[in-house]
Amino acid sequence: MDFLELPKRTTGNRSYGLTSIVDFGTPIGELEHILKDYHPFIDIAKLGIGSAYVTPNISQKISLYQAYGIKPYCGGTLFEKCYLQQKLPEYFAWLKQLGVEWLEVSNGTLDISLEERLQIISRAKDYFYVIAEVGSKDSTQEMPISEWRAEIELLLDAGCKYVITEGRDSGTAGIYDQNGTIKSDLIQELIKGLDCRKIIFEAPTPKHQMFFINEVGANVNLGNVKLTDALILEAQRQGLRSETFFLEEQEWKLLL
Predict the structure, then answer these.
(1) For the segment 89-127, what is each residue's pLDDT rounded down to a tens digit?
(2) What is the pLDDT of residues 130-148, one digit of tens each?
(3) Which family is this protein grouped under (predicted)?
(4) Among positive and negative, which fits the CA dihedral 49, 14, 243, 148?
(5) CB-based contact 237:218 (threshold 8 Å)
(6) Is 86 left (phi over 0), alpha (psi -120 to 50) or beta?
(7) What pLDDT score was predicted for residue 101?
(8) Coil vs helix vs strand at 104
(9) Which of 242, 238, 235, 162 is nearest to 202 (CA)?
(10) How far out from the chain centre does Cα 237 lie?
(11) Residue 256 above 70 pLDDT?
(12) What Rg value do the Cα atoms of the chain yield, rounded?
């Protein structure tokens, strides 16, 4: 029975308002129990770092996510490892064999030029839905805001379905400083002129998530969410936590 007035949430096969969780090796039995209850709140599952390559039951795990309508993909670290060893054709074939339809193209560890990434995306988009990542895992590296904006626009124009803003699972790089503080000036500039429905902001902690919910709206795309936090995040999105209690009853705070 619905009797509260809450922010309107996208549902079903969402194109925005996404929750992208990170799986760092959840046992498949535990995963099945969690997804049975919480799958309506999860849209995408990133198999963190390069863990997919050494997961014994990787095919079963991918099939389980897909059975619940969740899109699995491998973390960008595995892409970069394959790029470094010149094994991208083998990597793409492996993903196809597993039935993985989404591909992350990143440069969080390696310095892969934007031109090279755009070329890879141009080739890969015929076979995968491509997600690209902007920003470095090195917290000492700073990108001007103009470069963030330009790179996001170029990646989307190249055919990426979404662009991820780097934040690491610790929330201490990319859009965050070394202490985990959000670079709010950067975020304010990014949400002014870009389509936030195409950006996934990495937000690994409830504090980070609440910032984006309040700044962008209930249907902001959030990534690197812990699997066990899926329900809590949905409650935050619907104004059911003190820090989001007065969230406006609307679908998209800034854009719609």
Answers:
(1) 999 999 999 999 999 999 988 999 999 999 999 999 999
(2) 999 998 777 777 889 999 9
(3) Belongs to the phosphosulfolactate synthase family.
(4) positive
(5) yes
(6) left
(7) 98
(8) strand
(9) 162
(10) 16
(11) no
(12) 18
Token pair recorded at residue 170: 């610790």
Both tokens assigned to 131: 């997600």
Q: Give the pTM.
A: 0.94
The CA–CA distances, whole Å, from 77 to 53, 199, 218 equal: 11, 19, 29
CB distance 191 to 228 below 8 Å: no
Report the C-alpha gap between 40 and 11 in whole angstroms: 8
Question: The tokens 């490892």 sit on which residue?
Answer: 81
Angle between the N-to-C axes of helices 206-216 and 184-193, in degrees from 0 to 180, rounded to the nearest 10: 40
Q: Which two tokens stand for residue 247?
A: 């969230």
As to burial, measured by CB atoms within 10 angstroms (0-12 exposed, 13-18 middle, 19+ buried), residue 27 is: exposed
Structure confidence at residue 249 (pLDDT) = 57
Kindly report the backbone phi and psi dihedral angles of residue 25, in degrees, each rounded to the nearest multiple of 5, phi listed first.
110, 35
How far apart CA 93 and CA 77 sit, in angstroms, is: 17
Let me know the angle formed at the C-alpha of 72 by 69 and 73, rounded to the nearest 5 degrees: 155
Number of neighbouring beta carbons within 10 Å of residue 231: 14
Q: Which domains does the chain have, with CATH numbers?
A: 19-244 (3.20.20.70)
217-242 residue pLDDT tens: 999 999 999 999 999 999 999 999 99
